[in-house]
Amino acid sequence: MPYSDEIGLTPTDFSKWRLNTTKLGAQRWEFIDDKNIHINEQSNLTKYLLETDDFQPPKLQFEISNTINEALHNGATFFKSIQDENSGTWPVQYKGPMFMTIGYIACCYFTKTLIPDHEKRELIRYIVNTAHPVDGGWGLHEFDKSTCFGTTINYVILRILGLPSSHPVCVKALKTLHKLGGAIGCPHWGKAWLAVLNLYDWDGVNPAPTELFALPYSIPIHPMKWWVHTRAIYIPLGYLSTAKIHCELDPLLEEIRSEIFVKPYDQIDFKSNRNNVCGVDLYYPHTKLLNIMNNIIVFYENYIRPKWLLDYSNKKAFDLIIKELQNTEYLGIAPVSAAFQTIVLYHVQGPTGDDYLKSFNRLSETLFLGKQGLTVMGTNGSQVWDCAFFIQYYFNAGLAELPEFYHVIENSFKFLINSQFDTECVEGSFRDKRKGAWPFSTKEQGYTVSDCTAESIKAIVMVMNSKHFEKLHSLYDINKLNDAIDVLLTLQNVGSYKFGSFSTYEQIKATPMLELINPAEVFGNIMVEYPYVECTDSSVLGLAYFNKYSTYRKDDIKLTIKRATDYIIDAQDVDGSWYGYWGVCFTYAGMFALESLHEINLNYENSEVVRKGCDFLVKRQLEDGGWGESMKSSETHTYVTTLESLVVQTAWVVIGLILADYPEKDVIRRGIDLIIKRQLGTGEWKFESVEGVFNHSCSIEYPNYKFLFPIKALGLYVQKYGDEPI
Ligand SMILES: CC(C)=CCC[C@@H](C)[C@H]1CC[C@@]2(C)C3=C(CC[C@]12C)[C@@]1(C)CC[C@H](O)C(C)(C)[C@@H]1CC3
């Protein structure tokens, strides 16, 4: 039972929630009224997502699985049953970060938009259910220790949503916040949200001058050469902070002011707290250089900045915001920047502003309901990424061409082909060519991701080469894949830094020395693009697979693959491991690296690199036959095992070992046994532990991984060794 139920915060009536999707994969939760409850039936998928008792698991072909193939088929049947047929995707609560919802709440409060009661109740429940079980605070992500940032913003949300300060949840959280020194020590983004809500003085927030965006692009550290997320956040944040925008003070805010600090609000000298960050939060301390720069900028802002220059650069920032909205169908790249942007739009255009209204409306697509309540996710979903894996893995596992899976593949294929970008970004938005590429979530979100493009290419080539799917071939002009290849080839880093690698959204455009002025305090490595071994691996996989079936740019592709695999080999650590940036952690990267090396015919027998890669993983096999890695691996850059194995990581290792032609079959079989042991009678696997991570310190769940990777692992095993009894 969720904690919220135990303390009397009852959930809304779950039978009234509906998940609506569009063909392009947008997701929106709706709470319907009594009249419509029987007209608009709740789907089985919704029941699954809300974990209600009336969820109907699918009828399985094998009531009890006696062989590996039967277990595989059952798993695949379960996963098939939770596809959203309308969009062809697998909607999931892509949760983990605890600093997303504040944006939505601040937007609603700032714009005086009432949050309906059912939404409020579920938002409260989610926060209450993720409070730290001992001290009642919150951290950066759902499994973190309590921090000043997490505790402050989530406390503020609860209060704004109507939980009284005397409520035991608030009392406990506030005690923890005060122990941490109160909200004064929030890191930069926390201070910014508080300042927007008039709970902190902008003088206590380090500057983010919009003049930066008015500089000529030729400057090597121009902000539009930073990582796409960081620049997307600092444009509207810069606007809000230079214009010192905040909402009106009201009695509730006055109360909150009196609660979250350890001193009376009027007695706080905010100016002297710009660099005060609570020790527990500090992941990436300021450099001396940043402090000096901040002092100079503050002096400039207070005494030198002419009004005309401020107006001019804020106009530049505003224009960039409008362009971002045009490029993303008003979604914005991700929820943090989207919320800051929406507030800027409201400030400039007022409550009836067209852009403001559109932008506000789309914020709801990042809200997702689950058993624990409603929360703002890390992005507007993981649709493309999951579909690309799904199609490939059903092919890998020998399932795709079975008649019972025809329709799920068809749905997903249609979604993927409709998610390919077919337009370029608007002029002057500092965005690269995107036509032909794919994003991580939906086409409307509009941002190319290297590995999402590569994995989608591979999935589409599989369907287009299968006679079984002949009827679908006329739906797609195969030449469109050439555009995808064109974009993917431009993404390889070919400068002197990390030659041959691939990053996430763009090539590396500016020096990592910019990290010296990283103002975020809670994240490292966010200023520019970096080389990522997983993105490089996937890019190799997509390119190599395409190259087998097409004559298009054959030599360019070969050269790119050569450079990329050289990079992958070079990125291996002396102990044989690869550090994974986007999944937890060495098991994730190990799988991708071994698969990409397999693509260039390197295996355990003929390659020292592969041998070391496998041995590193095999040494970490647990007694129970599987593998389990803690999120601490990502934080400490050292393999930290869990006590018991985890299904997803076991699958990652098994896939890597099979593709590397690891010679000891028994080692692999024990991993397979663990995966099967954890499968339920319904064919499904349950959530065990967080699978994903970003910026080394923040966890994020990928709920579809617990199906995708076990299915691939079992399937590859059967393809290689034949079916075996369990
Ligand atoms: C520190 C900041 C700016 C926080 C906002 C959160 C975003 C930056 C995160 C949330 C989800 C996220 C981890 C994601 C990615 C980048 C950073 C994201 C968007 C990418 C696209 C990077 C490439 C990866 O291989 C993969 C495709 C798995 C992920 C998907 C999610």
Q: Which compounds are bound in this model?
A: lanosterol
Fraction of helical residues: 40-55%
* Strand order in space, largest sheet: 1-2
Largest sheet: 2 strands, antiparallel
Shape: globular
Distance between the termini: 34 Å
Radius of gyration over all CA atoms, rounded: 25 Å
Count of strand segments: 6
Category by helix and strand content: mainly alpha
Show unreliable segments. Answer: none
Beta-strand portion reads under 5%
The overall average pLDDT, rounded, is: 96
**Count of helical segments?**
27
EC number: 5.4.99.-
Domain Squalene cyclase C-terminal: 382-718
GO molecular function: lanosterol synthase activity
Family: Belongs to the terpene cyclase/mutase family.
Describe the structure.
This protein is mainly alpha-helical. Helices cover 46% and strands 3% of the residues. The chain contains 27 helices and six strands. The chain has helices at 3-6, 44-50, 68-81, 101-110, 117-129, 148-160, 168-179, 188-196, 228-242, 251-260, 288-304, 307-327, 335-349, 354-363, 383-396, 406-418, 450-464, 470-473, 480-490, 533-549, 554-571, 586-599, 608-618, 632-636, 647-659, 665-677, 705-721; strands spanning 17-21, 27-31, 367-370, 373-376, 692-694, 698-700. Strands 1-2 form a two-stranded antiparallel sheet. Strands 3-4 form a two-stranded antiparallel ribbon. Strands 5-6 form a two-stranded antiparallel sheet. The longest helix is centred in the middle third of the chain and has 21 residues, at 307-327. The model has no long low-confidence stretch (mean pLDDT 96). Bound molecules: lanosterol. Lanosterol (LAN) is lined by residues 229, 233, 334, 336, 378-379, 385, 440, 449, 451-452, 504, 523, 526, 534-535, 582, 694-695, 700. The site of lanosterol has 20 residues, from helix 9, helix 17 and helix 20. This is Terpene cyclase/mutase family member. Residues 84-354 form the Squalene cyclase N-terminal domain. It holds the Pfam family SQHop_cyclase_C.
